């Protein structure tokens, strides 16, 4: 169907595109955020949110609210919307939608494995998992002692199985290993997703490859920054970078040898799209980097809605909603802990 | 009040006169005042705090309280629904309820219910666990039993084999085995329990992988779905027994069980203990059951108590919430002693509002009364029509297109007659009309009962438009009589047909041999036309011409209404440069055609009207020849054509020029007026501010106005032709309807009749009935309805209707209770 999306797209996916665009218009606006930021208590936040699309999910909550309840209910809405779309989707859109959840699956696997390593209760961990990344046997992850067992017992049944091929070792699990596992998995996942999108072709490929490339680059930067000062070797570090994106391959070589944040900055500023991100930060600062990246991502995701007849809107919508939930969580936490001065630190306006 | 005297009130012609009023209410009586005003329901409050977010407003806490109470009520309702108790709708004598009291009561009720539920849930959980245990005991018992039996059988078999082939080696080997066994023996343990059926496969797989196959799993589905103790839902489950060896395997398996939500239950190995456990379990189940039943009884009595007052409470809460919402729209005075309200109300309601304010002051023992005053404003007031249950539906038809501008001529009045009539022209069959009439009559007779209960989506729509439908059916009986069709069969209702056969050779199928023997058939179409060869040409010509007459008449009505609008709003430009040329243009072409049609009908001339109309444009100076209907026709046509040609630039050019001139004049005197208005009303800074900004936005752009007028003119000129043609749908649909019903009658009913077979006849009648109901009564009604709707919205209303007003939405308790659920 390359290049002829306008002709054929609506046969199968027109309805869902309409749905997702409708969902998008339910995202909170800057005016909403302004109002939310002025809230004094969590009840105020609830009252404000009941006037939005979140209304039906929050209105039956008894009054002493917690941040977790708000976040939980908001996530529930996202999950229900996702499920609705999933039910209606046909191939290859359904496959595409599944891909969106793999990231959460990886996070959940890592969460449970780390949790069991620190001897937390499995049920407590399960509650913390993102509902989009749930799979049947997720709880039995707790049984595994090392990667090989993890793979053989549980993950072989999940869509994550192919990504594991690179990280099967018999080493016992520890924090470092798990983090490496997460990044290896993510790398494999992103590359797979990238290939899948390329295969879909047309506007989907164009937009999604762009978004995924950004994601890959962001991960590369984060890996670099997080691994500074750890015992991770340069080669190992380089192995964790995804093999696509704007930074691939020369940027990766530079990032691999970085020893502090300013070197990262130097490497990144050679790429015009990232120059603007780093231009916002003062030298030696890495705290605000996350926010800057999120802002850039939101900008790119919003742009995805400017084109029609492609799957990027689904990805963009899910990501935007997740960003919105992160925002809500931050705002509620600030309100709950009386840190209202910091409200604006981490909130990324979507519109 | 008004309209007293000889004439009926003309309320619907134009919307009610509105005024912007300001009320200053002392804060202590504000709640009661609003409650009285809500009962009255004739005041639409303006939001004076639009810039404040909901929780910054004065009464945010009260609204939060109401929201909390509403949530509690929803919880109670949910509980009632779960228990199958319907809230009684009996209107009890309401004891004076205070909001604070209610809040306490609701809190208590909720707490009590939650406690009762928690208790019964705990009991229920134990009960379900026991039930599951029971299942495990039974099923697992079966496993062991069958296993034992087969083991015994095997042993016997092997013993038999042993005795049969008592070779030299075999006892030795056997002994060896026997001797090695105890030394190597590992402890084989087992775990039994229940696992949800859908997870059973994955469960088995994981078990297998985790123990590397060193386990043995037996599963057996439980026949009936089991209530899961944790979630309380009914789930299909499997009983499983898994055997394993070693402690490590055990911990693994336990973890897996936990992960899969498999409930484990201890299973005694000995048969005697099993029996004992089974007995114990069933005994405890019985005990629990009675406790649970008692708990349920208690809960039901609480819920019944709630149910009797539920409606009243929820009404009170909704009412309070709406009062506080409205109070939030009022602005607080600087002294914080009184609230200032602004809003729209109909002029006639002023006394009622004053009265309500007065009562509220008295009842709340306030020392200061409320102040009521009328404000001057240039804002467009809302549109308010006082409709009754008959006119509402017709007004809705108009409102669906656009709410009338304030005080603009309301097409709704005319719609009451023209809409059903146009429908009936397309649906002319008095048999079908009677069916429709009877169906709607049922709705109207049962009106009281039906309006109180909840209907389905489609029924709701039918019920809402019942008076429209009944008018439609009455009119279609009338047009059906004119068309002389009863399920497509003609009747000689008004005397004998005027025609008869000249001699015996003439058949039904032809009119050639017919001669007129009596006076013309007095009403409608002569029955003799039906089924004759010239039926279609005759009816087509009749209906086509009729459609044009109706269309031209309705469009003229539209143009005339535009005159009344222009006159009412004192807009002489619109009268002279829009209404007059439009009237001339339409009538010089299509008005003339209508006149020709009538002349042709009266004189029985054979002139070809197509020819006349076409050559009027192509060669107006040519002789008409045989198509001349009256002397001097040629001259008249030339005059009319010239008039039409003149009226086009007349519509196009003067109006924008005059508007420009007017604007320039006004602009010179602008500063004076602006100053005056600010002097006049100090208190409405906001309003004057809006005025200013409004005046600012009124920048006169000549090119824009001219283009607008150009579009308008082109639309009207082309529209005159296309709209007239559009009215031909009246003919087309009427033709389709009569042909369809004729087909069903002849090809189904008469054909079946012809077989002289009862079975075929019954089948035929059934098919006929369903086709009539499904196709003619439902689908045709819908399509004729839609076409009538279109003719009103497009062809009629575009001649005069602006429809850019907004509806009057008063603060009224009656509306609130309708709104929710």
Automatic annotation (TrEMBL), chain A:
Quaternary structure annotation from Swiss-Prot or TrEMBL? V-ATPase is a heteromultimeric enzyme made up of two complexes: the ATP-hydrolytic V1 complex and the proton translocation V0 complex.
* KW Transmembrane (keyword) present: no
Indicate whether Lipoprotein appears among the record's keywords.
Answer: no
| Superkingdom assignment | Eukaryota
Q: What does this protein do?
A: Subunit of the V0 complex of vacuolar(H+)-ATPase (V-ATPase), a multisubunit enzyme composed of a peripheral complex (V1) that hydrolyzes ATP and a membrane integral complex (V0) that translocates protons. V-ATPase is responsible for acidifying and maintaining the pH of intracellular compartments and in some cell types, is targeted to the plasma membrane, where it is responsible for acidifying the extracellular environment. Subunit of the integral membrane V0 complex of vacuolar ATPase. Vacuolar ATPase is responsible for acidifying a variety of intracellular compartments in eukaryotic cells, thus providing most of the energy required for transport processes in the vacuolar system.
Any idea which GO molecular function terms this record carries?
A: proton-transporting ATPase activity, rotational mechanism
Could you read off the lineage of the organism from its UniProt record? Eukaryota, Viridiplantae, Streptophyta, Embryophyta, Tracheophyta
Q: Where is it found, in Gene Ontology cellular component terms?
A: proton-transporting V-type ATPase, V0 domain; vacuole
Please report the organism this UniProt entry assigns to the protein: Rhynchospora breviuscula
Homology family: Belongs to the V-ATPase V0D/AC39 subunit family.
- The protein's name in its UniProt record: V-type proton ATPase subunit
Alphabetically list the UniProt keywords: Hydrogen ion transport, Ion transport, Transport
Name one matching Pfam family: vATP-synt_AC39
Automatic annotation (TrEMBL), chain B:
**Compartment(s) where it occurs, according to its Swiss-Prot or TrEMBL record:** Membrane
Source taxon at top rank? Eukaryota
Q: Would you name any one GO CC term?
A: vacuolar proton-transporting V-type ATPase, V0 domain
Q: Where are the transmembrane segments?
A: 421-445, 466-483, 546-564, 576-599, 635-653, 758-779
Give the compositionally biased regions (Polar residues). Answer: 148-169
Q: Which residues form a coiled coil?
A: 99-126
Q: Which GO terms describe its molecular function?
A: ATPase binding; proton-transporting ATPase activity, rotational mechanism
What InterPro entries does the record tag this protein with?
V-ATPase_116kDa_su, V-type_ATPase_116kDa_su_euka
Keyword terms, alphabetized: Coiled coil, Hydrogen ion transport, Ion transport, Membrane, Transmembrane, Transmembrane helix, Transport
The UniProt entry's sequence similarity note says: Belongs to the V-ATPase 116 kDa subunit family.
Q: Which PANTHER family match?
A: V-TYPE PROTON ATPASE SUBUNIT A, VACUOLAR PROTON ATPASES
Q: What name is this protein filed under?
A: V-type proton ATPase subunit a
In which organism is this protein found? Rhynchospora tenuis
Q: What phylogenetic lineage does the species belong to?
A: Eukaryota, Viridiplantae, Streptophyta, Embryophyta, Tracheophyta
């Amino acid at each position: 169907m390359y290049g002829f999306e306008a002709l054929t797209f609506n046969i199968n996916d027109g309805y869902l595109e309409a749905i997702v665009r409708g969902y998008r218009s339910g995202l909170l606006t800057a005016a909403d955020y302004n109002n939310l930021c002025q809230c004094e208590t969590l009840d105020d936040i609830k009252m404000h949110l009941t006037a939005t699309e979140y209304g039906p999910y929050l209105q039956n909550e008894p009054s002493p609210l917690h941040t977790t309840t708000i976040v939980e209910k908001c996530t529930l809405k996202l999950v229900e919307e996702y499920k609705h779309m999933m039910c209606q989707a046909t191939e290859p859109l359904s496959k595409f939608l599944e891909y969106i959840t793999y990231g959460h699956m990886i996070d959940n696997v890592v969460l449970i494995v780390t949790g069991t390593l620190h001897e937390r209760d499995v049920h407590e961990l399960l509650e913390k998992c993102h509902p989009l990344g749930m799979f049947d046997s997720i709880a039995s992850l707790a049984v595994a002692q090392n990667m090989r067992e993890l793979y053989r017992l549980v993950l072989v049944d999940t869509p994550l199985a192919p990504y594991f091929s690179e990280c099967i070792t018999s080493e016992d699990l520890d924090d470092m290993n798990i983090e490496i596992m997460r990044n290896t998995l993510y790398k494999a996942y992103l590359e797979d997703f990238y290939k899948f999108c390329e295969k879909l072709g047309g506007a989907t490929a164009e937009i999604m490859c762009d978004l995924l490339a950004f994601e890959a680059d962001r991960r590369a930067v984060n890996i670099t920054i997080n691994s500074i000062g750890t015992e991770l070797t340069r080669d190992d570090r380089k192995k964790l970078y995804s093999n696509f994106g704007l930074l691939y391959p020369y940027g990766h070589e530079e990032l691999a040898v970085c020893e502090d944040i300013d070197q990262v900055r130097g490497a990144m500023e050679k790429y015009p799209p990232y120059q603007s991100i780093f231009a916002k930060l003062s030298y030696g600062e890495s705290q605000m980097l996350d926010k800057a990246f999120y802002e850039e991502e939101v900008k790119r995701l919003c742009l995805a809605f400017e084109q029609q007849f492609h799957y990027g809107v689904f990805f963009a919508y899910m990501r935007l909603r997740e960003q919105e939930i992160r925002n809500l969580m931050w705002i509620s936490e600030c309100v709950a802990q009386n840190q209202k001065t910091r409200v604006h630190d981490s909130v990324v306006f979507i519109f | 009040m008004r309209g007293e005297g000889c004439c009926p009130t003309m309320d619907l012609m134009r919307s009610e006169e509105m005024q912007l009023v300001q009320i200053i209410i002392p804060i202590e009586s504000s709640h009661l005042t609003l409650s009285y005003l809500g009962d009255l329901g004739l005041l639409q409050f303006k939001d004076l705090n639009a810039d404040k977010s909901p929780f910054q407003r004065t009464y945010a806490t009260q609204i939060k309280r109401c929201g909390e109470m509403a949530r509690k009520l929803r919880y109670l309702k949910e509980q009632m629904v779960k228990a199958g108790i319907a809230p009684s709708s009996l209107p009890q004598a309401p004891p004076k309820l205070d909001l604070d009291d209610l809040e306490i009561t609701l809190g208590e009720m909720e707490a009590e219910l939650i406690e009762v539920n928690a208790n019964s849930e705990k009991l229920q959980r134990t009960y379900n666990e026991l039930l599951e245990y029971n299942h495990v005991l039974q099923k697992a018992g079966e496993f062991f039993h069958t296993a034992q039996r087969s083991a015994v059988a095997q042993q016997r078999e092997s013993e038999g084999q042993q005795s049969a082939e008592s070779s030299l080696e075999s006892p030795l080997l056997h002994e060896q085995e026997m001797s090695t066994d105890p030394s190597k023996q590992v402890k084989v343990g087992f775990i039994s329990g229940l696992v949800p059926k859908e997870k059973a496969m994955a469960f088995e797989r994981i078990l297998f992988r985790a123990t590397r196959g060193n386990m043995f799993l037996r599963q057996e589905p439980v026949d009936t779905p089991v209530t899961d103790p944790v979630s309380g839902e009914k789930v299909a489950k499997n009983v499983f027994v898994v055997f394993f060896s070693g402690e490590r395997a055990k911990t693994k398996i336990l973890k897996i069980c936990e992960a899969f939500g498999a409930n484990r239950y201890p299973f005694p190995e000995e048969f005697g203990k099993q029996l004992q456990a089974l007995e114990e379990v069933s005994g405890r189940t019985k005990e629990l059951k009675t406790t649970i039943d008692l708990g349920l009884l208690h809960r039901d009595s609480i819920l019944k108590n709630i149910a009797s007052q539920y409606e009243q409470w929820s009404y009170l809460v909704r009412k309070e919430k709406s009062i506080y919402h409205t109070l939030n729209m009022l602005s607080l005075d600087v002294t914080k002693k009184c609230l200032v309200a602004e809003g729209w109300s109909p002029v006639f309601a002023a006394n009622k509002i004053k009265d309500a304010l007065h009562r509220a002051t008295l009842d709340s023992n306030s020392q200061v009364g409320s102040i009521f005053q009328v404000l001057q404003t240039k804002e467009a007031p809302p549109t308010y029509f006082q409709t009754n249950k008959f006119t509402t539906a017709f007004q809705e038809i108009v409102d669906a297109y656009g709410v009338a501008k304030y005080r603009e001529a309301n097409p709704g009045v005319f719609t009451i007659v023209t809409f059903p009539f146009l429908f009936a022209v397309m649906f002319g069959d008095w048999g079908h009309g009677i069916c429709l009439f009877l169906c709607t009559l049922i709705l109207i007779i049962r009106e009281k009962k039906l309006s109180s209960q909840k209907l389905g989506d489609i029924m709701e729509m039918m019920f809402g438009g019942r008076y429209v439908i009944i008018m439609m059916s009455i009119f279609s009986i009338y047009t059906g009589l004119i068309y002389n069709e009863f399920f497509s069969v003609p009747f000689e209702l008004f005397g004998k047909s005027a025609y008869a056969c000249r001699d015996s050779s003439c058949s039904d199928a032809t009119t050639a041999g017919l001669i007129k023997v009596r006076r013309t058939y007095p009403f409608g179409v002569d029955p003799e036309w039906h089924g004759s060869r010239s039926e279609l040409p005759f009816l087509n010509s009749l209906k086509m011409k009729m459609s044009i007459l109706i269309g031209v008449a309705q469009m003229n009505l539209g143009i005339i209404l535009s005159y009344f609008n222009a006159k009412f709003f004192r807009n002489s430009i619109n009268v002279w440069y829009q209404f007059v040329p439009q009237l001339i243009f339409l009538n010089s072409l299509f008005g003339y055609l209508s006149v020709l049609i009538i002349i042709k009908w009266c004189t029985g001339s054979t002139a070809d009207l197509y020819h006349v109309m076409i050559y009027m444009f192509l060669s107006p100076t040519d002789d008409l020849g045989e198509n001349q209907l009256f002397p001097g026709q040629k001259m008249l046509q030339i005059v009319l054509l010239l008039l039409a040609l003149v009226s086009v630039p007349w519509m196009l050019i003067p109006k924008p020029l005059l508007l420009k001139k007017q604007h320039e004049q006004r602009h010179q005197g602008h500063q004076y007026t602006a100053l005056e208005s600010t002097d006049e009303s100090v208190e409405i800074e906001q309003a004057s501010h809006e005025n200013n900004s409004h005046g600012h936005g009124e920048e006169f752009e000549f090119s824009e106005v001219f283009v607008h007028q150009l579009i308008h003119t082109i639309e009207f000129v082309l529209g005159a032709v296309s709209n007239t043609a559009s009215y031909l749908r009246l003919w087309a649909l009427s033709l389709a309807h009569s042909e369809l019903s004729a087909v069903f009658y002849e090809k189904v009913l008469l054909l079946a009749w012809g077989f002289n077979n009862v079975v075929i006849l019954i089948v035929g009648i059934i098919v006929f009935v369903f086709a009539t109901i499904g196709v003619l009564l439902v689908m045709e009604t819908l399509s004729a309805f839609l076409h009538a709707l279109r003719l009103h919205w497009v062809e009629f209303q575009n001649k005069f209707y602006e429809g850019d007003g907004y509806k009057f939405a008063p603060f009224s308790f009656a509306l609130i209770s309708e709104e929710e659920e």
